[in-house]
What does this fold into?
Amino acid sequence: MIIEAVYHRPGDQYAYACTDEMLHIRLRTKKNDVDEVVMLAGDPYHWEDGNWQNQEFSMWKTGTDTFYDYWLVTISPPYRRLRYGFLLKDESESWFYGDKGFSKEVSTDIGYFFCFPFLNGIDVFNAPEWVKDTVWYQIFPERFANGDTSNDPEGTLPWGSEEPTPENFFGGDLKGVTKNIDYLVDLGISGIYFTPLFKAFSNHKYDTIDYMEIDPQFGTNEDLKEMIETCHKNGIKVMFDAVFNHSGYFFPQFQDVLEKGEASIYKDWFHIKEFPLTTEPLPSYDTFAFTPFMPKLNTEHPDVKEYLLEVGRYWIREFDIDGWRLDVANEVDHAFWRDFRKEVKATKPDLYILGEIWHDSMSWLRGDQFDAVMNYPFTTNVLNLFAKESISAKEFVENMTSVMHMYPEMVNAVNFNLVGSHDTPRILTECNDSIEKVKQIFTIMLTMVGTPCIYYGDEIAMTGEQDPGCRKCMVWEKDKQNQEMFQHVQKLIRLRKEEPLLANDGVLSFLPIEDDNPIVGFTKSNGTETILVLINTKDESYDYSIPFNWSNKVVKDVWKH
Amino acid sequence: MIIEAVYHRPGDQYAYACTDEMLHIRLRTKKNDVDEVVMLAGDPYHWEDGNWQNQEFSMWKTGTDTFYDYWLVTISPPYRRLRYGFLLKDESESWFYGDKGFSKEVSTDIGYFFCFPFLNGIDVFNAPEWVKDTVWYQIFPERFANGDTSNDPEGTLPWGSEEPTPENFFGGDLKGVTKNIDYLVDLGISGIYFTPLFKAFSNHKYDTIDYMEIDPQFGTNEDLKEMIETCHKNGIKVMFDAVFNHSGYFFPQFQDVLEKGEASIYKDWFHIKEFPLTTEPLPSYDTFAFTPFMPKLNTEHPDVKEYLLEVGRYWIREFDIDGWRLDVANEVDHAFWRDFRKEVKATKPDLYILGEIWHDSMSWLRGDQFDAVMNYPFTTNVLNLFAKESISAKEFVENMTSVMHMYPEMVNAVNFNLVGSHDTPRILTECNDSIEKVKQIFTIMLTMVGTPCIYYGDEIAMTGEQDPGCRKCMVWEKDKQNQEMFQHVQKLIRLRKEEPLLANDGVLSFLPIEDDNPIVGFTKSNGTETILVLINTKDESYDYSIPFNWSNKVVKDVWKH
It folds into this structure.
């Protein structure tokens, strides 16, 4: 047994409360190395005749990736307290593993056991209920629909008349969304994630000028109210984009510093290294990346913090938005996000907080900061299989198993799955224009654990390279929309609503898969019902035997009927 | 190479900011398995010709325990941002390790590298400067000294006239401390940790009746002021004990619930399962352990929280205390402790927050909750070597290496090292009355990384079994105090003050040790000076060659001179 590969540490995805009563305890071992794992656990204060009392609980394997097996046991400690250790067995040896490491003998000293000291309700990760049943649609407002030409900025081009550039404008706005609500309802989505709507200089609006004002080119506060009401009436949630890492260059507070230098009352709102400010060869102030047009905000400063927290509260309080997506969330301090969570959840308890983080995000997902992150590890894995064809179906299953064992189960259910955004080439372009591949990708995304998001236009097979290419004007002419793709996505969304197992009900298990097997298969089961998803990832037929017995079961083909 | 044993995850002790500029990046590998580790790192936004730019940084081995080697590299990223991965090499192979796992090839995709997104100053772990130079002395107030017989409770026994029991009283008080300040100054300690002083029923005072009042048997607010001023004048910090997990049975709010049941306005201050309250066979309310006399407080309730936070602030504001030791800290919710930190640090920025947690405490030591915990893993390791003789000197060194790699370096420097307390048998009793062993133990504790604490009376070789035995009255008759022990401890404290390397200056490295070698040796070095500590843990002489060359160095015997 390679005990050095065994890993557990209380907290994170390894020991957490999934409800006010139940704990998940997980363990990682080297792949195919350990035959059996038993948890020895008991209440820390349950002693008899001077001996601490514990019981055995079998753990089961929940998945295997390239290098590891993962084990789980669920337990509801009657007094909400637990000390526990693991007994690992293979054919030839057995090891005990606890708070002070590994030993051949099971310790009789409770101090050698791991501890989950007390299940306090307030510390339980708690995302809004509605998120796990939501299908998102991402709108880049300047390019979705022009519903009101009177607010078009100067130089607005006719809709879709040119290729998108970093500078051009086509007049998309809020009225455009309101007027096309039937299209979205018809597609079936139940949440819209809007990239920034606040007044800004660029067409993407990530360079905010005023966080308290809708950009006039998108419309008025009345237009916004009408749009949100229309969405809500149609069962559609609305998520805004909070760009709090940096402001735009034309943010008046930054302009004040540019103008007055050290005399500006806003000089501590940013991270200034030297006065007067310079932008060449590198900015003399911290920025997003190295772009002088996005000065990093000093979110540790009390005034900046209060200003941004009020932004967080204001749009919920006044316009009843349902979620905040946090741009470049990983570069803002954790202390800020803890207070942000407190403030916005106090304003609206079931508000969804989604961080833009592309890498391992555990540090933000412990219940005190975000509800979820944009699940780019999911994206990478999908692209590697279908677009780059750099991994096999088996590797896809292994990598997806890794991704699903990175976080607690409740995080997985609300994590934001996407296969493209305004920051990436469009999925159809990634897949070399293969409609069939993109249909498979949507099938996976819309049957997988998590909350899926469709980037506007992907459902009608729009194409586009890395931005600005991926930000083309939405195509509204029916005959230029790919109806096969639309109907495929529409059907997947409908099925996901009809069959909760296709969304986040039940527990997902990947089916065993061999090296040359192109079939990605998984089940989701809630104990009484099981749904099976099988996807042939190759363009050729393959004989596949379903690896379980369903005689005497009622079987229904959900896809065909 | 057993790559499955390789571990890193950004955060915790593996990637953290140790100053506003510098990061520590650590990695764990299987013991003696990897020959060389190189970190590949760069700014996430530093691209040239479409390629992300990174550089190589060698890592060095900082220690080896029973199963693992630990590697470290320090780096000060110029823009406070870092993406990084590891290149692991042995004789026959090399592996890349990053955010998406292991691969034979170094990825060219930045997404496969780990991320430390931004070094925000406010998130840096930040304990008070003074703690790392402090030598603590723990006082159990009822048993240290009776300085004022007028406040003795009814039935107080003559000092030291009987063995301590859970019920008897000997009259120790605040005046007793003030009057004996010269003794403490002579010993050389620079901080006192007091077990609870607030009004309570028992002699140990962990069953609080009033958190806002000093127990009358200990004296008045004036006595307290005088004592704290006396301590401060003599360079001694004062730490109080906060018992916030539970109140005492006679806490008026709990008495109100006992009396009025569901009609009590305090019914939500506790965790009541059923009304009316019962205590048999088990309490119908949550308690500390299973004792009905310590009802668990509902620290999630806003009124309870505000009450306890005000307790936290009050004693700092009004009496200028320097630290709070938090009893049963692990069973109170994290949300409470985050707010507690904010409030007490706002009242006094350099207040020390010490949690009583016996097990792995990483979840409380991320900078948002505690500064340190009581380092019982240190205690266990010392007892196993000297008292139980269950491990060899080599195993001691390995276990201590584990303990020192559990947390970030800044935590180690302020972690509260102890070898006994009011909750354990006295160290001399644990060591079967061997004065020599206890002298060695103090030598280790007072030369080790961390902030050491001497339990009152251990310095004069008092004995005592598990409580109540370990809570005997302090012996004040000179001829009954072991002066050899006193002078030994006194000398160690003096040396620790004179030689900052003996405290927390410099970096500790254990010397290599073989199976049958009884010499525990370590160096601490600050780059220009190195101090060497050697302890023969056996009662027989042993020939030992110091495993490094000190020719051409100025060498001084700190112990003899």
